Amino acid sequence: MDRAIELFQKMHPQHFEGTTDPIVAENWLEKMEKVFDGMRCPNDRKVSLVVTVLDGEGNDWWKHYRRIHFRDRPVEAISWEEFVKAFRQKYVPHSARIKMRVELERLVQRNMTVPEYEAKFTSLSKFVPQLVSTEEDNCYMFQKGLRDSIRAAVILTLARDYSQLVEVATLIEQDQQVNL
């Protein structure tokens, strides 16, 4: 058996059966990147390995896409960048990214805890990196969605580092809960 295939299988890559959830699709793609990084996989081997874990609708999509767009070109001749572009067009389309952009722009903490809000913020942010391309933008977008009482207190701290901002917001929230 090919050494790359053996190593790939030892990494226990997650299978992909297709999805209508762009977050699930993007997370799967990120997991594949981690597997490839962990095995130091060269780009010219990634597609031939990743297609072995496409199942069900995911595999049906790939076979159809490859036949139509790559004219059944050998899988080894298809670049990882081409695969990722095709995958995102199908499973993380522009319309989904626009929807997530709007969702991020409108995201407010409401009944979420700060850690829950931060997790949702981070999940949406990866789809619209242009909104959070700098530390300052990231902090601004996060801060504007916090509950008013937390945001007002956070602003006074002048926290400009995202990790520090999240930590301060969490501590303020905990303090407010204790002092209810």
Automatic annotation (TrEMBL):
<dbReference type="Pfam" id="PF03732">
    <property type="entry name" value="Retrotrans_gag"/>
</dbReference>
<feature type="domain" description="Retrotransposon gag">
    <location>
        <begin position="49"/>
        <end position="148"/>
    </location>
</feature>
<protein>
    <recommendedName>
        <fullName>Retrotransposon gag domain-containing protein</fullName>
    </recommendedName>
</protein>
<dbReference type="InterPro" id="IPR005162">
    <property type="entry name" value="Retrotrans_gag_dom"/>
</dbReference>
